[in-house]
Specification:
single chain, mainly alpha, two-stranded antiparallel sheet, 3 helices, 2 strands
Length: 110
């Protein structure tokens, strides 16, 4: 079961931030095109960076904690999911803070 640790942690991050979408109505998932525009460059750049680091021998993964599914360049699927999940959770958190902060705190000087 240890091969699901990485994916399990990513799922826990998504589950932990899901109430932000539902309760605070951050609308991150509802605006999925906007979310994809933020995720695509992030996932692409960091995936290429990881592929380079793996090929150069600078970076490895403990296979015990991975699903065992590799993408081209020996990049674990789990790592690509990390590059998508982490920014998604960060965006959800940012939008929740924006939604809940008092207007006087955001520099709304009139």
């Amino acid at each position: 079961m240890s091969h699901l640790v990485y994916v399990g942690l990513l799922a826990a991050c998504l589950i932990a931030t899901l109430p932000l979408e539902i309760v605070l109505r951050t609308r991150v998932y509802a605006r999925w095109r906007r979310l994809l525009l933020a995720l695509i460059p992030t996932v692409a750049v960091f995936s290429l960076w990881d592929i380079y680091a793996i090929a150069a021998g600078h970076w490895t993964y403990d296979r015990r904690y991975l699903t065992g599914i590799d993408l081209p360049g020996h990049l674990p699927l789990d790592e690509v999911l990390f590059f998508a999940v982490t920014p998604t959770c960060a965006i959800l958190t940012l939008e929740a803070v924006r939604r809940r902060r008092p207007h006087w705190l955001i520099g709304d000087e009139r």
